[in-house]
Amino acid sequence: MLQFANEIKKRVYFFPKDINDLNTYFHQNADATLIVDFDEYFENRNQKDFFNDINRIPFKKILLIGNGSHNYDLNNFKINQNLVELEDKYSEIPYDFTGFPNLEILRYEHIKNCSNFSSLTKLKELSLWVYPNKNIDEFLELYNLEDMRFVQSKITTINGINQFKKLTSVFLIANKDLIFDLNVQANENVRELYIDSCKKIDINLIPKLFPNIEKLTLMKNGEIKELKPLLENLNRLEDLNLMGTKILENDNRYWKDYNNIKKISFLDQKNLFLKANEF
What digits encode the pLDDT tens for the residues 137-160? Predict the structure, then answer.
């Protein structure tokens, strides 16, 4: 019997004993996700050929989690012509991404010696953890990107982001050396910007780089002197989330003057005239 992490969402675990049933299930459910949880295979840790038959399963989405991947032969994970979604922050596989010509979603903790991101021409979502380079030049040929996310990475600039004409969402989390500068050209297509714990970013430059955002989140980004530079210059902004970011101004009644703003979320502060429940 198949083992599901979530049967409604069609997330099912891989076990060799279930190969035939998995083959049938994925033929009938092309949108299902195969979960490889290395923690579940501890008793098989000396069985190098544990994944020999995994490619008999016609999966298009895969999630690799858990510890202990080094115990196995993982060559069958390194090439998949049909794979559409790959999420892997655990296996330490140095992928050559030329082996995934149809990939649309990649969520990956960067591993030394992985290569050829530029070959992922169908990619729509790129989410990278601990990316070691200081710029995003390696991705500038991924013209179909709609969603870009960097987490705990070494990037210092997003110069070139204007080249992504389909990009609508940008998430920047715990990139401690990242700055916005005046030399970066604007991306007018981005509608959602999420910044968390990137304290070197000058938020007053957000309207220049992303003038048409509709949803802006500034989480744990230190202190903001005042919101006026943002509210004055982001004419399409509807949803502003400031949870965990300290606002230094006192009289915030003018926040209500911007009719385009439908929601402002923030933590109550003694210095603020109006409190969160008054918006």
Answer: 999 999 999 999 999 999 999 999
d(Cα 254, Cα 265) in Å, to the nearest integer? 15
Q: Which of 63, 125, 178 is nearest to 139 (CA)?
A: 125
**Residue 148 phi, psi dihedral angles, 5° rounding:** -125, 130
Taken in order 23, 25, 28, 34, the sign of the CA dihedral is: negative
Q: Quick check: 106 and 126 in contact, CB under 8 A?
A: yes
Query: What whole-number distance in Å separates Cα of residue 143 and Cα of residue 241?
Result: 29
* Single-letter residue type at 189: N
pTM of the model: 0.94
**Rg of the chain (C-alpha set):** 22
Distant-in-sequence contacts of 5-13, Cβ < 8 A, 24+ apart: 5/35, 9/33, 11/35, 11/63, 13/37, 13/40
What is the C-alpha separation between 88 and 80, in angstroms, rounded? Answer: 14
